[in-house]
Specification:
Elements lengths: L3 H17 L11 E5 H4 L4 E2 L9 E7 L6 E7 L1 E2 H14 L8 E3 L1 H7 L6 H15 L2 E5 L7 E3 L4 E5 L5 E8 L4 H5 L4 E5 H6 L4 H10 L7 E2 H7 L7 H17 L3 E7 L2 E6 L1
Parallel strand pairs: 2-5
Antiparallel strand pairs: 1-11, 3-4, 4-7, 6-10, 7-8, 9-10, 12-14, 13-14
Helix pairs in contact: 3-5, 8-10
Length: 268
């Protein structure tokens, strides 16, 4: 292939072949939800109280437990946004990424366990809109380089006249699949998550799901990883204890204890 023209044609053919490859998320069971481990081990979706005002972030470095760096631009995300994102990814896993995912507001709200009412529909639209206006950059050794994407590149819920569509439609970025890799994601037990109080309980459920045998973790590390603003140490311990009790009640944990500010857990 010495002819420059032949070389160009070959490169163009390779590019077309690469673009035609199907980019699809891993498949998991209907009663599970998949999400990259880097996300679960970070404060991207904070466990802060809904009464606390959301911050506006601009390329802010997000706390990560372990290796990796996450930078985020957009309105602060909370655990309820993670619930929405989890179910959206769940729907998108059945087809190549980049294709339209359609659903009704009713079916989505029902699936994530929110009350069937107008407030929940507005809350869903707000969450999807919030994640559309984002820039997420994830750097880690296993990725080899950074990945930059919008969490929800496209989202439509109303027509040109401002009337709600019968079916919402969303697109996710094909590069999202790189965050999952082959084994770098966790499968959350969906009914367990829905049964937990939204906040520290759901955050710990996600974090501990990334480890089959979780190592002891410091209370202060949980505080940073969950993005908590609590100032008093005794209040932090109370919140974590309440969350651990709820994890035991839903059957996720077999046992737990806090000794010398270290949280020890045993999964079922």
């Amino acid at each position: 292939m010495k002819n420059p023209c032949d070389l160009v044609k070959h490169m163009q053919a390779q590019a077309r072949k690469k673009s035609a490859e199907v980019v699809q998320l891993p498949l998991w069971n209907e009663d599970q939800r998949g999400i990259p481990n880097e996300i679960l081990r970070s404060a991207l979706f904070t466990a802060r109280n809904r009464t606390q005002k959301r911050r506006d972030l601009k390329a802010d470095t997000i706390a990560v437990i372990g290796n990796g760096v996450i930078r985020y631009t957009g309105e602060e995300l909370r655990q309820d946004d993670e619930t929405v994102w989890l179910h959206l990814i769940h729907l998108a896993r059945q087809q190549p990424l980049g294709r339209v995912v359609e659903f009704t507001a009713y079916s989505f709200v029902k699936a994530i366990g929110w009350p069937i009412c107008g407030d929940s529909y507005r809350r869903l639209r707000d969450s999807l809109t919030r994640m559309q206006a984002t820039a997420l950059k994830v750097y880690s050794k296993r990725l080899g380089s950074g990945i930059s994407l919008s969490m929800i590149p496209e989202f439509e819920w109303q027509d040109t006249e401002g009337k709600p569509l019968a079916r919402y439609w969303v697109k996710l970025a094909p590069r999202l699949v790189q965050l999952f890799g082959d084994v770098h994601y966790s499968r959350l037990e969906w009914q367990q998550r829905l049964a937990l109080p939204v906040g520290v309980g759901t955050w710990l459920h996600g974090y501990f799901s990334t480890h089959k045998r979780p190592h002891p973790i410091k209370l202060e590390t949980i505080k940073d990883g969950a993005g908590l603003l609590v100032k008093r140490h005794d209040h932090l311990k109370e919140q974590v204890e309440a969350a651990l009790k709820s994890l035991e009640q839903v059957g996720f944990l077999k046992a737990w204890r806090i000794e010398d500010d270290l949280v020890h857990v045993e999964r079922t």
